[in-house]
Amino acid sequence: MKNASSSKVNRFLSSGLRSVRTAAELRALKPFIRLYPLTLVGTFLLVLSLYLLGRSFAIRNPYGFFIATAAFSVLILLSVIGWLQARGFREKEAGWDSSVPLYANEEGMRHTLLLEKLRSLPFFRIHFILSGKILVGHRAYLYPFREIATKGGETVPFTLHLPLCGAFHARGRFEVRDVFGLTRMRFGLEEERHIVVRPALLRERNFPNIEAMDGLENKSKIKSSDVERYFMREYIPGDKIRDINWKASSRFSELFTRISPVTQEKTRVISVFFRPFWHRKAESVYSLVHLNYIKSWLLLFLKAVKQAHPEYQFHVGIGDQSFVLETEMEIDAFAVELSGLLFRIPPSDYAMSAQMPGEAFVFTTPYDTTLSTFLNQFQNARIYTFRTAAPTAKNIEKLKKIRLFRLHSSVYFAGPWILNWDRQLKNPAVRLESMSWLHEEPLEVRFA
Length: 448
Description:
The protein is of the alpha/beta class. The chain folds into 3 domains: 34-198, Immunoglobulin-like, CATH 2.60.40; 222-259, no CATH class; 266-446, Rossmann fold. It has 7 helices and 19 strands. Strand 12, helix 5 and strand 13 form a beta-alpha-beta unit. Helix 5 (285-308) runs antiparallel to helix 6 (328-339). The longest helix is centred in the N-terminal third of the chain and has 34 residues, at 2-35. It is flat. Residues 211-230 and 261-265 have low confidence and may be disordered.
């Protein structure tokens, strides 16, 4: 028994050492692969020309010898010219500007290639290859691929159409290629970037009028007296010229600025609950689309209410997490946080805080089977629930068709999750109280 177990351990260690050795060898070969000048088509032509050259020698065929020599010479010439261009481009600046925020399913989001100082020779083009993977769900990845070809000498904007939000681990590299697709030479460093793909931007839609709703938490700032007074302080660069108190400044030989006291201002806090809950973790096409859409619906609600009522604030609860959003910048930062949220198992404890909100807005999906239990905690409160839904005979007129993969210049590859469609998805029943409303958006998913 001991000999058998020791042999198993030895085999395991030897296999591990072989895998480590193989990984080390691949890393050692990486610089040579980077310097290899031929594409797949060019490699095929090289092998074919060498075969034709050898066979022509064997049968003494001058025509085959000439064709093989010509093909071999063309490959060498194109490789040398490409190498010279790539070497010259190393001393110049080539950049990839990815500062523009990316939103899922948005065609207008553009990144830019900075190639003003680079220009290719005739019959050659500068190529930028963008690849990587986006984590869109539990063990669910999307692999985009985008290639841009240009002569250079200018800034080149290009669009990125990404169907789902998530964390995009992107890699970008520059190459010089001939127009025949035979040779390629890399230049510059391969850039790796972590790009957040935010939830898609939905169009404006009607939300409940919350301006007249009561029960919102009120806070008061320092009040001023009924008589308008002014306070003064020393001038700070950036203060408006019209606020300078010239009379007081002339007496003290220093500049003083008028500032008004803080006036009464009410801040209203709106309670929002986002419920990305599901008992399973095996993602499907439907689950990812529903989760992405409800994220977009939530963001639209926050932005629309904030734009209409700048004094409103939001308390957003996600399970045991909570976020307080006071400004538009904090809403934008929350969009980044929201893009990485995946389905999670619902918490077992539904106990609310002692202070129940007078109004609450709930955003969820048909995968949330514990929604009714959660809503039963609210008593004498106005509850607006926004939920994506599976298509039924009753909501077929409101059906919204989601095209997951449109025909664009970008190419996408997906994992096994793309084969799971959840066609038997049903909408869990929700018992509504007298002061509760349910707004549903039925979704139908299509590939193109």
